[in-house]
Every structure is written in structure tokens, then in C-alpha cells.
Write a structure and sequence with these properties.
Length: about 110
């Protein structure tokens, strides 16, 4: 395994939880998969469809998201929205993220 592959793996692990949190926050306003993918990308949470769609289905199964089909357009789209439980989870994760950010900032700095 090359250094870059290991680095990519660690970066993916670090980002995985942030994508969950970003989805829960962004879907307080209903959205569909592809639109969400673009918004995540634009906001600096890079992910791909192969990661996002299973994540949305899992969060729905865990009842953190609700969904409904919108058939007004030519192409039906499944819209997701953060549930009340999802909002509580997002708040908890955000608090934890802030605490971790502070804890990381307090770690010994690298030597110069």
C-alpha cells in the first residue's frame, strides 16, 4: 500500500462522520440525492454517489431522515428531510464536534 493510499483511507475515515452531520443539517430543508451531492461538494464535503445514497438509506432506516417521492417533475425524485430525531442527533454531533475541535487545538503543537 502506497503512502497516498493510506493517507486517503485516513482522510476518508475522518470525513465519513462529517458527511453524516452535513446531511442532517442540510436536509432540515428537504432535498434529493443529486442536489445534496452537489451542495455537499460546493460546501467542501467531498463525497460520491456510492457513499451518499447508502448513507441516506441508512439514516432513513434509523429514522433520522424521512422521505417522500415528488412526482410533479417528469422524473420522480425521492426527497429526504431530517426528522425530529435527526435534528436532535445533528445537535448532539455538532456539540461533540465542537468539543473535539477544542480538544484537538489543545494537543501539543508540532515542533518547528
Amino acid at each position: 500500500m502506497h503512502m497516498n493510499e493510506t493517507l486517503d483511507t485516513h482522510l476518508q475515515e475522518l470525513r465519513r462522520g462529517t458527511v453524516v452531520l452535513a446531511c442532517l443539517q442540510l436536509l432540515r430543508t428537504a432535498g434529493y440525492g443529486y442536489g445534496l451531492l452537489e451542495e455537499l461538494e460546493a460546501r467542501g464535503f467531498s463525497t460520491d454517489a456510492n457513499t451518499l445514497y447508502p448513507l441516506l438509506r441508512r439514516l432513513e432506516k434509523q429514522e433520522y431522515l424521512t422521505s417522500e417521492w415528488n412526482t410533479d417533475e417528469a422524473r420522480p425524485r425521492k426527497f429526504y428531510r431530517t426528522s425530529a430525531a435527526g435534528m436532535r442527533l445533528a445537535d448532539t454531533l455538532t456539540d461533540e464536534w465542537r468539543a473535539l475541535t477544542t480538544a484537538i487545538a489543545d494537543l501539543p503543537a508540532k515542533e518547528h
